[in-house]
Design brief:
Elements lengths: L2 E2 L10 E4 L6 E2 L1 H14 L7 H7 L4 H8 L6 H17 L6 E2 L3 H9 L8 E5 L4 H10 L8 E3 L12 H10 L6 E5 L2 H9 L3 E5 L5 H7 L3 E3 L2 H6 L4
Parallel strand pairs: 2-5, 2-7, 5-6, 7-8, 8-9
Antiparallel strand pairs: 1-9, 3-4
Helix pairs in contact: 1-4, 3-4
């Protein structure tokens, strides 16, 4: 069920900034497999799927740092991050798929009622080249004018620099922009940039997402699609 925490009209939005993992794609299993392969390679015990999923959202270096929680060896953490990225790059779409209905939702989101196309972009904490490759390989990259990652700016989500830069590049007033994501990082990013925020509860962190109190919450991609009638 769609839950509005603040009244506004999503149909009037000119810019939609989407998170990637947990919002557009279900990448959990590939991230879990890649992280556990990294842990095993460095002689560490594997972690449960639930623990690894809880660690996702702040980019590969932080994922590795959390998984190697007791390590203060920065060289080890750098080497582990490099191994993780190399392994994940090869196995990035072994199990990863777009969430059901994402393609249809993006078609609807592109066009407003008067036929003027919205600007759709992706802002992830995953490296930009990996994010763009996954979107292309899953057949949904064509919907996005640009794809930004955790290495695209000097800071990453929840810092609003990326969102503010996209607003400037597209000439969009913040009040006509919406950030869509599954984590508090996405909500904080949008809020700090003066944009509206939409949380998707089907993603990786529904409990913490609700605590962040986005402007609205949706439970399915069908509900998300209904916000943007064409």
């Amino acid at each position: 069920m769609i839950q509005f925490n603040r009244p506004f009209d999503p149909g009037k939005m000119k810019l939609l900034i989407f998170d990637l993992d947990g919002t557009l794609i279900d990448s959990r299993q590939d991230l879990i497999n890649s992280m556990n392969a990294t842990l095993s390679h460095f002689g560490r015990p594997e972690l449960s799927p639930e623990v690894i999923t809880a660690y996702v959202g702040d980019g590969p270096p932080m994922l590795v740092r959390r998984a190697f929680g007791d390590s203060t060896d920065e060289r080890l953490l750098r080497e582990a991050t490099e191994f993780f990225l190399a392994f994940y790059s090869v196995h990035r779409i072994d199990c990863t798929r777009a969430f059901p209905g994402v393609g249809e939702m993006l078609v609807s989101a592109q066009a407003s009622k008067n036929g003027v196309k919205r600007y759709l972009t992706v802002l992830s904490n995953k490296p930009a080249d990996l994010a763009a490759s996954i979107l292309a390989e899953l057949g949904i990259g064509r919907f996005f004018k640009s794809v930004y990652g955790g290495n695209s700016f000097s800071t990453q989500k929840p810092d609003p620099l990326g969102a503010k830069t996209i607003l400037e590049q597209t000439g969009t007033p913040p009040e006509l922009g919406l950030v869509v994501g599954d984590s508090p990082n996405d909500v904080l990013t949008g809020r700090s940039a003066g944009m509206w925020t939409c949380g998707v509860t089907y993603g990786f962190a529904p409990s913490t997402l609700r605590l962040a109190e986005p402007d609205l919450l949706v439970d399915t991609t069908s509900e998300l699609m209904s916000l943007f009638p064409s």
